[in-house]
Design a protein that fits this description.
By secondary structure, this protein is mainly alpha-helical. The chain contains 10 helices and no strands. It is globular. It comes from Streptomyces agglomeratus. This is Secreted protein.
């Protein structure tokens, strides 16, 4: 075999190896390291769900990125945004007298908000969580916690309170994203002029439900 053919054969082998690496290597999620960076604690949660099988966990996360990575969340109009903020404030007030009803309403409110932002429909909880985990991996666990509390009758008041606090982080992220232009002038509040609207949170320290003992 001539030298030219040997060089050509080596070149073909190199090209094939590179192609195999690109297909089976990093992948769309950037491989293990890329997925860890993208998903953070969600990566560890999925690995634990698969009993430490990182390959299975990464396949699941890769599938989520493939299914939902190109999703572009829709902005809210200022009017809709203000409605959500007011309704969440009402849920927090309701928590004082009826924690179970409050977490159930918070769960429904988050589902509707996510759907309004362009995530899967509010009656598709699993799909919503998968999509939210791709775009808000560090906060999606709060949605899971409040959903679980809403569907578990024996949750303690403290567990429900903590679930509400975790869920509030996702709610705040979804609702305070840049609003759509409503087509009319609306005076800005001082906090909005500084780049972020102030929601009337009231469930933190010093505000506990009646009889909770917290």
């Amino acid at each position: 075999m001539s030298t030219v053919w040997i060089i050509a054969l080596i070149a073909v082998v190199v090209v094939l190896l590179v192609a195999v690496f690109l297909v089976a290597g990093p992948g769309k999620g950037g491989g293990g390291r890329g997925l860890k960076r993208r998903f953070g604690p969600e990566y560890d949660r999925v690995v634990a769900h698969h009993d430490g099988d990182t390959k299975a966990a990464e396949r699941e996360l890769e599938a989520r990125v493939k299914d939902h990575g190109s999703l572009e969340p829709r902005p809210l109009t200022p009017e809709i945004r203000e409605q959500y903020v007011a309704r969440w404030a009402g849920v927090q007030e309701q928590f004082v007298d009826s924690p179970q009803r409050a977490v159930a309403e918070a769960d429904r409110l988050l589902a509707r908000l996510a759907a309004d932002r362009g995530f899967p429909a509010d009656n598709q909880y699993d799909e919503q969580v998968s999509a939210l985990s791709v775009h808000h991996a560090d906060k999606v666990q709060g949605y899971r916690r409040v959903h679980r509390a809403a569907h578990t009758e024996n949750s303690s008041t403290e567990q429900m309170r903590e679930a509400m606090l975790d869920a509030r982080e996702l709610f705040e992220t979804l609702v305070t994203a840049k609003p759509a232009d409503s087509g009319k002038h609306r005076p800005q509040h001082a906090e909005e002029r500084h780049g972020r609207a102030q929601a009337p949170w009231s469930l933190g320290k010093g505000h506990h439900p009646k009889g909770s003992g917290a």
